[in-house]
Specification:
With about 475 residues, the protein is of the alpha/beta class. It has 13 helices and 16 strands. The chain is globular and about 60 Å long. The structure holds pyridoxal-5'-phosphate. Pyridoxal-5'-phosphate (PLP) binds near residues 148, 150, 183, 249 and 311.
Length: about 475
């Protein structure tokens, strides 16, 4: 799900054999005996057969084998427990093996785990869609369910294109996006990722050409500078006749750079979209469900997009599920158009098991004082990250909600640093220059301290070049 393109260059070096030496006992799930071979059979076969995200099969970096997980901890096959600072790529907001989410899954699986969604409906999906409409910004009234974040982005883009076709304006078929953005790995999503750090160059012949405005420069709590939107305003005005939609990540640019920008920027984008008759797609796949301190990051600017994408934390990290919401204006346009329907329908659309867990996860979040909890994590991260500013190899640190970022001066060697983090009992997976944490919301202050102290110890001993 995430930019790990640095793997191609820096991280295929020096990763021989066993990532940890503490191989005394083999986990109970590994039904093998210890041999001279330092790696478990699972991990050997993993390297033989399995492709991991952004990974090489000719120069594989050994993966760690998880045998169980509970709370904020991942248990490895050697019995060691790691505090998970990643919430499994920002999804596991309630931690692992949560009794309420387990019960929701077990309860649903005993009824039915899946049925087709063409011509059939069920309570888990209907409840979820109603819930999503209620909790998202006003005006997002219709929900299209899909399997993953990238697909939710494809669906959003297709909605925008089909809307303009239905309005008799098929030439509005381009998108305007922001530099440093990330929207997924499928082809339409790739076309709106950052054109330099994304995969545009490699796939130059096949990725659609879109328009890009500079990344917002005014930071989240800084005073607004109208100059910051000038280039965006010029592009949208010049290209409005060919633009179907603007697509952006509200407030937090995630996997494209972990940048936090001013709500005023987002407000101005909304105004400019209205002025020039261009739809606004908010990709809240990373920010949705409280991560930035608001339930949805659009709330920072008090705006409603025309189309919104949700994913990642929607099931509390239990299963893959995503949603694309849109306004009634968009859905009416599409459905009253020539096709008479929206032209999309995933096989596993509205998977009941995933919807049941999503309902339980959202109820669990909303029944807690989640906002105070995110504020607690934010305050704690600010205190914990402050000392990093004094390190020679650190460019800066920044915190928003339950997101803490340490930007290094140089890209880190992932394979090397991952070993050191694991030796400290923490799971942190940097990309490029960015070492960051997006922990489960249940992480206590003491666990945060342990997590960030571990990072400090590793970075303090990492050479600055
Ligand atoms: C992760 C992410 C995606 C892609 O989601 P997948 O489930 O990995 O396909 C899209 N947009 C944003 C903002 C993301 O963070």
């Amino acid at each position: 799900m995430q930019k790990e393109t640095t793997l191609f260059t820096t991280d295929t070096l020096g990763n021989t054999g066993n990532p940890s030496n503490q191989f005394g006992e083999i986990g109970t799930l590994n039904n093998i005996t210890k041999t001279d071979q330092p790696q478990s059979q699972i991990r050997q076969k993993d390297q033989q057969f399995v492709w991991h995200p952004y990974s090489s099969l000719t120069a594989p970096i050994p993966a760690y084998q998880v045998v169980s997980a509970h709370g904020v901890y991942l248990t490895l096959d050697d019995g060691s427990e790691l505090i998970d600072g990643m919430a499994s790529w920002w999804c596991a907001i309630h931690g692992y093996n949560h009794p309420v989410l387990n019960a929701a899954a077990k309860n649903q699986i005993d009824k039915f785990s899946h049925v087709m969604f063409g011509g059939i409906t069920h309570a888990p999906a209907v409840d979820l869609c109603e819930k999503l409409v209620k909790i998202t910004p006003a005006g997002l009234d219709k929900v299209f369910l899909s399997d993953s974040g990238s697909v939710a982005v494809e669906v959003a883009i297709k909605m925008a294109f089909q809307y303009w076709i239905s309005q008799g304006q098929p030439n509005k078929n381009k998108l305007l996006s922001l530099r440093s953005g990330y929207h997924g790995d499928t082809f339409a999503a790739m076309s709106v990722c950052d054109p330099v750090t994304g995969m545009h160059q490699m796939f130059d012949q096949v990725v659609a050409k879109q328009h890009f405005a500079p990344a917002p420069q005014t930071r989240v709590h800084e005073e607004w500078d109208e100059q910051d939107i000038a280039e965006f305003a010029k592009i949208i005005s010049d290209k409005k006749d060919q633009l179907a939609a603007v697509i952006l990540e509200p407030i937090v640019q995630g996997a494209g750079g972990m940048r936090f920008y001013s709500p005023h920027y987002l407000k101005r984008v909304r105004q400019l979209c209205d002025q020039h008759n261009v739809l606004l797609i908010a990709d809240e796949i990373a920010t949705g469900f409280g991560r930035s301190g608001k339930l949805f990051a659009c709330e920072w600017a008090d705006i409603s997009p025309d189309i919104m994408c949700l994913g990642k934390a929607i099931t509390g990290g239990y299963m893959t599920l995503a949603a694309t919401l849109c306004s009634e204006d968009v859905s009416n346009g599409i459905c009253n158009g020539e096709a008479g329907c929206f032209m999309h329908g995933p096989t596993f659309m509205g998977n009941p098991l995933a919807c049941a867990v999503a309902n339980a996860s959202i109820d669990l979040l909303l029944s807690s004082d989640w906002q105070a909890n995110i504020q607690r994590i934010e305050a704690s991260l600010k205190i914990e990250l402050a000392p990093f500013e004094a390190l020679d190899n650190v460019a800066e640190t920044r915190v928003l909600g339950a997101i803490g970022v340490i930007e290094m001066k140089q890209a880190v060697n992932l394979a090397e640093i991952q070993k050191q983090f694991v030796a400290e009992g923490i799971w942190v997976r940097p990309f490029g220059k960015l070492v960051y944490v997006m922990p489960p919301y249940i992480t206590t202050d003491q666990q945060l301290h342990q997590l960030v102290s571990g990072i400090y110890k590793v970075l303090a001993s990492t050479p600055s070049s």
